[in-house]
Write a structure and sequence with these properties.
The chain is mainly α. The protein has six helices and no strands.
Length: 208
């Protein structure tokens, strides 16, 4: 299987625009998060080695390494989200002739749908972790790249909210009330945190 993450930008967007159900919003959320991580690394890299920022150089090196790790994880989640959706669709194609088959199919659909909710939740959580480093590079990084840090914050917030929409739509099909309640609670908290954090970061972007 040719991975979505291995496609060119043009190929990825063409596939997104097609009538195929994947890549969809969850994969786009992961890609947006990976873009936020890449921009954060860029600001850190543009700070490292500059005499003006020697006091924060080591901190920027740590951030650069950390967000590159996050970027790689989010790239993997582009395909993982698509795979989780395909997993749900595969369960709907299971045989349902006998009562036993019907029960097995029903249980398989429920388990696959839970996974389809867990994956975008992990995207949202991973991107939320980026927000601290984004704020740091905006505060302490190269002033000439401060708007790139601002874009990273906006992309991160969008990635989180987009991923959480994918969580919520899957929760509507899950019968496990405890699972739904816990995931809905997490989603609500992350949504609020993302918007607060983005606003806090953007307030620190001062353009002369």
């Amino acid at each position: 299987m040719f991975m979505l993450a291995d496609k060119s930008v043009k190929e990825f967007l063409q596939e997104t625009a097609s009538d195929a159900p994947v890549p969809g919003g969850g994969s786009i959320a992961a890609m947006s998060g990976a873009t936020a991580a890449a921009l954060t690394a860029m600001v850190a890299n543009l700070t490292i080695g500059k005499k003006k920022y020697v006091e924060v150089e080591e901190q920027m090196k740590v951030i650069q390494e950390r967000v590159n790790g996050s970027r790689n994880q989010l790239i993997e989640l582009i395909d993982k989200d698509a795979e989780s959706f395909n997993g749900v669709m595969a369960c709907f194609k299971m045989p349902k002739e006998t009562d036993e088959e019907k029960e097995s199919r029903k249980e398989a659909i429920q388990q696959a749908t839970k996974e389809a909710a867990r994956v975008p939740m992990s995207i949202a959580e991973k991107v939320m972790e980026l927000m601290i480093d984004i704020e740091t590079v905006v505060q302490k990084g190269n002033n000439n790249a401060v708007t790139d840090g601002a874009v990273a914050a906006m992309m991160a917030r969008t990635a989180i909210l987009a991923a959480l929409y994918n969580v919520k739509i899957n929760l509507g099909s899950i019968k496990d009330e405890d699972f739904v309640h816990e995931m809905a609670r997490k989603a609500s908290n992350l949504e609020e945190q993302a918007q607060i954090q983005e606003k806090q970061i953007l307030q620190q972007v001062i353009l002369d």
